[in-house]
Every structure is written in C-alpha cells, then in structure tokens.
Fold these 2 entries.
Entry 1:
Amino acid sequence: MKILITGGGGFVGSHLSEALLARGDEVYILEPGGTQKVRHLLGHPRFRIVRDSVMSHDILDSLIAQVDLVYHLAAVVGVEHYVGDPYEVLNVNVNGTQNVLKVAYKYGRKVVFSSTSEVYGRNPKLPWSEDDDRVLGSTRIDRWCYSTSKAVGEHFCFAYHKLGLPVTITRYFNVYGPRLDKIDVGRIITIFMGQLLRGEPLTVIGDGLQTRCFTYVDDAVAATIAAGVGPGTDGQVFNIGTDVETSILDLAKLMIDISGSPSTIRFVSKEEVYGNSYEDIARRVPDNTRMRKILGVEAETPLRDGLARTIEWFRTQ
Ligand code: UDP
C-alpha cells in the first residue's frame, strides 16, 4: 500500500514508518520539524519525506490524492506545550485535523486518527473503556487544552464517518521507547532519563503514587497498523496500551535499578515543575479488550525490558 503519515518524523511516526516499510508498504511522511528520528530511513527506496505541515492545504491535497491510507499523527504534544503554548496546541490539533479529514473525504481515503488517553481526563472510574465519560477540569487550567483538542478531532472523525469516510481512532496510553522526545523534555521517561544519565536525583512530583500504563512502542505500532489495515475497524475507537499499572515512584526506582545510575529520588511539588496551570491525573488505565479482540494485539512487552532498551538507546546517543 501507499501510506501517508502526517507527523511521521516524530517518535511514534518514525517507528510506524519502519514497521510499514518492513511490511513492504510505500511510506510518505509529512513532517515540518526535524528529521533526526527518521534519518536512518532516508535512503530507503520506498520512503519519502515532505518537509511541510498539515496546516498547508495544497500539500495535503497533492499527497492524499496519491495514497491509499492516511495515518494522521501530526499534533503538538507534551505537557510543556499544554501549559506553555496552548494556542499552538489548539490550532494545529484542531485545524490540522480538519484539514486532513477534509482532503481525505475529497479523495475517499481512510484516516487513522491518533488520539490520546488524555481524552478521559481524570475520570475516577477505572479502567477506561472506549465509550466511558470524559472528566476534565476548568478551561482556566491549560493542561486540558490538549485533551479538548484531541476530543474535537475525534468528533470531526465521527462526523466524517457519518458522511461515509472510513475513519479509525487510536487512543494511546503513555507510549515509550527509543527516540522518545528529547532528553529532559517531553514525557516523564525522558525527563527521568536526563537526570539518570547525569546522576542527578529523579524529580518525582507529589508522593509519586500516581500511576500510568507505560506501553512499549513496538506494541503500540502493531496495534496502529492493525487499526489501519485490519478488518472491523472503520468507525471504531481503540484504547492502545497495556493495562499493567505502574506508579511514578516505582518507575523512578526501576529506571535507577536498570541503569545502575547513582541517582536518588527527590520529591517535588507540581508547581515547582509546571507552575499553576497544571493538574495531575491520579491514575490512568485502559480497558484494552477491544484492542486484543478486534486488532488482535497484546501489549506484552514487560516494562523492565522496554525500559532497558530505551535507556540503552539514550546512552548511545
Ligand atoms: N512527573 C514527575 N516528575 C517530573 C515530570 C512529571 O513525577 O519531573 C509525573 C507527572 O506528574 C505525571 C507523570 O509523571 O503524574 C507522567 O507525566 P507525563 O508528563 O509523562 O505525562 P502524562 O502521563 O501526565 O500525560
């Protein structure tokens, strides 16, 4: 198949590109940012990069006309952006998604929209199945702008599906692995990674008992491919993640243990890291029945193995 990945130069996109090339697909990526994460694919005969963005309608039109399937991954992601640049989060995630859907509809091309576990907000009823409620805080708390932007994207997907467009939504749960963000920025694993490699204390926010379900990127990519090419996926939304819950404190201890780093743990307040425009989520756990039954994928990589591979990769960088 010919496949377009918007935001294909990012963390998940780079792994998805590799996996699709290995399947024999032809992969086009649309990427306005750096191409560091896909530089090892640059000479591949079935791989092409277009250095532009989903905000450019003409580029989308010429690319989507040529492909069979679109993975729409392009988005502004990362808590530092939610609290630092909410305008850009809303603009790219809402308007960029509309642009992609509009052109895909014109040509009748299937879209897999990459959404997030953040859409459930802080719903206290766990685990979250795909049709569960969204429970969010005030719009004065910038953290929720990302959740809202992705939920708007999902509404657009369902609206276009009603108009006849084949669309599938994937909601990712804390995906990690080699090439995740940059050290010190982005998500917790890269923040801990920087501290670990310098032997500094790992900054655990609050008591560290908040949990996440850390999902290894290869598992997430296998499910993403099935969401695009597998049967029974149109008009569906899928939680993509393991249901094994890990506290942030245990994550910190495990990373110290695996790396053999002299780092210790320092408890900090959320204000110290993110200021006042941040609200933490206590627990986040998917019901992944649909992923297992319809996509036929188990997120089975143990955290220790996935972290060992991730730490090793960052060490060699
Ligand atoms: N966190 C932490 N120390 C830090 C940064 C984040 O303990 O230096 C916590 C944060 O409070 C949250 C968890 O790590 O509970 C995961 O944060 P991340 O930014 O990866 O994204 P989230 O899963 O909240 O979307």
Entry 2:
Amino acid sequence: MIVIGSDHGGFELKEALKAYLEGKGKKVLDCGTYSTDSVDYPDIAKDVCCKVLSGEGEFAILVCGTGIGISIAANKIKGIRAALLCNTYSARATKEHNDANVICFGGRVTTPEVAIEMLDAYMNAKFQGGRHQTRIDKLTEL
Ligand code: RB5
C-alpha cells in the first residue's frame, strides 16, 4: 500500500500521482485533502506519516504547494525520513542512500510529468545498506 496526502496547494498533483499509481495496479490509500479548499499541511503530514510508521503503508507521498512545509512537518516525526524531490538523480539517491520512507513534491512548482519521472526513479531504486545504514542509525539518534 502506498499512502498519499496533500494540502490544497498539492491537491491537483496528488490526484495525478494517485491516478498514475492506480493505473499501474498499485493500491493507494488517499488521506486527503479531497478538494482545493484550504487545509493545514501539518495535519495531513501527521496522518499520512502515522500510517507509514504503523506499517499500513510501505512508503508515502506528500504534496503541498512547494513541498517545503509538508516535508518540514513530516521530518519532525521520529522515524520519518522525508525527502523533497527536485530531480530524478535525487529521487533515486534518496532511496539508495537515505532509505526515505516519505517523498514530497511541490504541486505549484512541478508538473505531473516530471513528478511521475521522479516517483518512478524512487520506486525503481533499492536501499543500498552498508555505510548508508550506519548513517541512518546516526540520523535516528539525533
Ligand atoms: C499553502 O498556501 C502553502 O503555504 C503550502 O501548500 C505549502 O507550499 C507550504 O509550504
């Protein structure tokens, strides 16, 4: 299961990513928001991240206007490693090196086509472990 959520600024991109994943046969748990009415991104981040930490979701996608606010919110939650994606290299590397369990996008700064390329790069990558696990253990201690 892939968990997804956005605020109003990320609503349209969230809908596009959800449709893309479902079109590929993936199960998606949509935690809202469900319209362009204004909501607070920390509330969405909390709900989505709790579902990752409980094991309900294998990873999560969060979207706000810039991707910044919702990634800041997610990274305040212990056990969450949220990465704001800006290119396919970083999308792949954050899985391989950081084992990011949440990926974030900015709906007002990224087209659906580019976001889908980054999403695919992340999903096709594998965590490399080794020295990267050591660094993640240190992140967990912070
Ligand atoms: C909402 O207007 C906007 O502030 C939010 O989507 C996000 O960009 C915050 O970082």
